[in-house]
Inverse folding.
């Protein structure tokens, strides 16, 4: 990993650390993860015109929505299925590390919040196996935590927390998340 | 918490305890939760007319269904996204304690059963953080258990069981669940 | 670069390096499950003509799909809700042991992969309770692992791994999975 890329990962980490609350930090200092991983993943939503590049698609919408445009009322009720590339830095075109696969759904009318169920799937010399995630994503918050609910292969029986940060957001087509995975149960 | 409210919570607890099987009780006596919380949450399904008050909406339906009316065949295949208020007692208009956010889907043609993936999201002085749930809900049973699969903030790394009871059911628009959360892993 | 920054870079680098250790693989070989169960489950997808026999139905599809035919592009975006019979052997008509209930969604355009959230629900003298599963299913692989994220009743607080194998696949209407459940946390 080049120094530029390293600095980018560091930048994400620093942002996450600096925006954690003091109380949270205290607790976290007493608990050191047995494994820690930082990745980016990139989501390009299908909008009717980008079939080639899209990595996700709206598959469900409320009665007032459709499947090529995120619905009004903060996208409440839209369900999106995704197969997103994972990279070590914030460049969509960097070496592919794995795939983030699963779904998210928007679940509030007044602001943007989501619920996620997905896996990081790895099949390289660096990592083989999967990490499974679930939880609420109040995505207007600078950082937010979801649960690592299990893992397979290199991540056999893993449990922990993943801190997510929106690293980029371009219109309603592209976003990029930085994910700081902290495992507290490693087998 | 006023005495009336306390009695209501107690009532829910008593119902849950009294309807547990003897075998289950034996096991449970030997395992005391490290944390226990009882809440109510309230679901008002969008039916095409109640846009203002609705807290949930049908977003998927089988080929024979639609998104403003729960489908025939025990609603099999209907997926509902929700953002439901959590209260300490059974009154929809009581102080908001947090939000229950996620989805449920009906998954049996012959009777009413559901599968749930959701979080309790808290952001008050009493509780900060989230509790993540998943599991089967055979909702015609008086009580049924789902899994607490993780947590964040005050509920960091939580695991346990949530016993749910339908406390009210009004037509196909409103229901209220009493949830008795028993955590057996607390960090 | 100041010395503080340099230390932070080194810290981050160490975290990334330490996470690729293979020591835990050895542990896995030494670990014996505290409970092991092998079952088959059978999925018959609704195709517009088999309403009586179908055990599952497409409830969501991307903009280019519909709910009576699995979509093109490796069924990307199709969400299927199911209530499948569980048997001890590979015969659909064998004694019913329980039901597999929940959903799967197809999440890759170039090949067949899925994401699953479901429960095995048992209510017999042999087994009472539920086992909850979540995870990625790269279904073209001969075997693949998903996570056991929790359980209730006889499977109270269970955690583990389920190895799945496609045992039969007939057109786009029927498939049968063999599931080898290995629990590593039993209460």
């Amino acid at each position: 990993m080049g120094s530029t890329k390293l600095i980018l990962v560091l930048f994400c980490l620093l942002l996450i650390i600096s925006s954690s609350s003091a109380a949270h930090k205290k607790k976290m200092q007493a608990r050191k993860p047995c494994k820690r991983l930082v990745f980016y993943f990139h989501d390009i939503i299908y909008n009717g015109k980008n079939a080639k590049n899209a990595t996700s698609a709206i598959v469900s919408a409320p009665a007032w929505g459709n499947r090529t445009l995120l619905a009004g009322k903060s996208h409440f009720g839209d369900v999106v299925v995704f197969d997103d590339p994972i990279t070590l830095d914030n460049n969509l075109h960097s070496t592919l590390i794995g795939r983030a696969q699963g779904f998210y759904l928007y679940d509030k009318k007044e602001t943007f919040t989501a619920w996620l169920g997905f896996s990081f799937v790895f099949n390289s010399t660096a990592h083989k196996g999967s990490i499974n995630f679930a939880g609420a994503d109040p995505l207007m918050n600078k950082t937010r935590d979801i649960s690592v609910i299990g893992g397979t292969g290199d991540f056999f029986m893993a449990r922990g927390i993943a801190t997510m940060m929106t690293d980029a957001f371009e219109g309603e087509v592209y976003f990029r998340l930085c994910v700081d995975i902290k495992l507290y149960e490693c087998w």
Observations:
- Chain C has two helices and nine strands.
